[in-house]
């Protein structure tokens, strides 16, 4: 972002390490969504309204619609209320408090309901689809079952890099050079290596080794202006090919989950870049739903700031200001088909 100093990036490129994972787990009670967007539409608005406090061995930074958690090892993650995207889209929702949980119900036009359960701070616990006959099918389960507590300290999973038996250009597909057939093949492909078990959404979000088991599409047909998360109308139409492929996948398997991942270039502070990237991911997810009818419940978003540069440069790079789409269903269910 122009006018902002470049951050000290030593040790940050590899994502969140295990030391930071424990700190992040301790800070889990401070998940975002406490403040709504509240009209913030520019980075300057967000930056000026950040509130920072110390909680245990993590620093909690709240901003409109997001919470950033920084561990003592200087690793950072960003979280948001998973139901806010539904509200921002103007969908027919109602919310109620049940004990320590918030339950938000989205009434779909076909009579089914999407039920999203979050904790008091907005962290997703579970999302399910309730059919008209009363049957309920879990889409996302974010509760860890291999530990004594529902919240866990270590959210980062370290795995060996998966062997790559396909050309790299078919592992990370550039949307600009791909047709709908290749995009559909990429976002429905099985894991490139066996998935050891089922993982929570948080584990998927913060574990690059785990996400690497799934092929992805770099949506390089959309590039953002520096310091902006807005998608211009002329670029929004370029999402049609992506949307058509996702629609086919969801029609085939209604419980599919796709993650829209946001990225920035290396200019600016890590906090600004993390916030920007997360908002870019949400902007694209909202367009996929609003303009192309992709069910909101089949999408989730996550920003990674400048951690995963497409072009290795510390300078201004439009190519690095992008989003990526990845199917994560097999990671959430523990499927191993290859």
UniProtKB/TrEMBL annotation:
CDD domains: OmpA_C-like. The keyword Membrane applies. Keywords: Membrane, Transmembrane, Transmembrane helix. InterPro entries: Bact_OuterMem_StrucFunc, OmpA-like, OmpA-like_sf. The chain crosses the membrane at residues 20-40. It comes from the Bacteria. Residues 211-336 form the OmpA-like domain. Gene3D superfamilies: OmpA-like domain. The keyword Transmembrane helix applies. PANTHER family: LIPOPROTEIN YIAD-RELATED, STATOR ELEMENT OF FLAGELLAR MOTOR COMPLEX. This is OmpA family protein. It comes from Bosea vestrisii.
């Amino acid at each position: 972002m122009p006018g902002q100093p470049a951050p000290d990036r030593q040790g940050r490129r590899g994502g969140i390490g295990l030391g930071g994972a424990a700190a992040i787990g301790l800070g889990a009670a401070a998940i975002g969504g406490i403040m709504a967007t509240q009209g913030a539409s520019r980075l300057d608005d967000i930056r000026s309204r950040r509130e920072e406090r110390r909680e245990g061995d993590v620093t909690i930074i709240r901003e409109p619609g997001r919470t950033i958690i920084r561990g003592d090892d200087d690793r950072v993650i960003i979280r948001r209320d998973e139901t806010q995207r539904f509200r921002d889209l103007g969908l027919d929702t109602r919310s109620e408090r049940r004990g320590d949980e918030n339950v938000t119900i989205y009434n779909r036009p076909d009579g089914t309901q999407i039920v999203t359960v979050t904790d008091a701070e907005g962290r997703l616990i579970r999302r399910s689809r309730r059919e008209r006959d009363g049957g309920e099918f879990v889409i996302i389960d974010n509760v860890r079952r291999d530990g004594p507590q529902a919240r866990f300290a270590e959210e980062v999973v370290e795995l060996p890099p998966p062997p790559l038996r396909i050309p790299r250009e078919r592992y990370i597909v550039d949307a600009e050079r791909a047709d709908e057939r290749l995009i559909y093949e990429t976002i429905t492909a099985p894991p490139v290596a066996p998935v050891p078990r089922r993982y929570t959404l948080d584990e998927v979000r913060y574990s690059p080794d785990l996400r690497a088991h799934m092929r992805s599409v770099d949506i390089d047909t959309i590039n953002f202006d520096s310091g902006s998360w807005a998608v211009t109308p002329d670029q929004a139409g370029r999402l049609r090919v992506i949307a058509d492929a996702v629609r086919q996948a969801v029609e085939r398997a209604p419980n599919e989950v796709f993650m829209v991942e946001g990225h920035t270039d290396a200019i600016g502070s890590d906090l600004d870049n993390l916030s920007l990237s997360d908002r870019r991911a949400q902007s694209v997810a909202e367009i996929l739903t609003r303009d192309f009818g992709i069910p909101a419940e089949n999408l989730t978003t996550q920003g990674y700031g400048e951690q995963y540069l497409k072009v290795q440069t510390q300078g201004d790079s439009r190519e690095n200001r992008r989003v990526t789409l990845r199917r994560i269903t097999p990671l959430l269910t523990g499927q191993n088909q290859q």
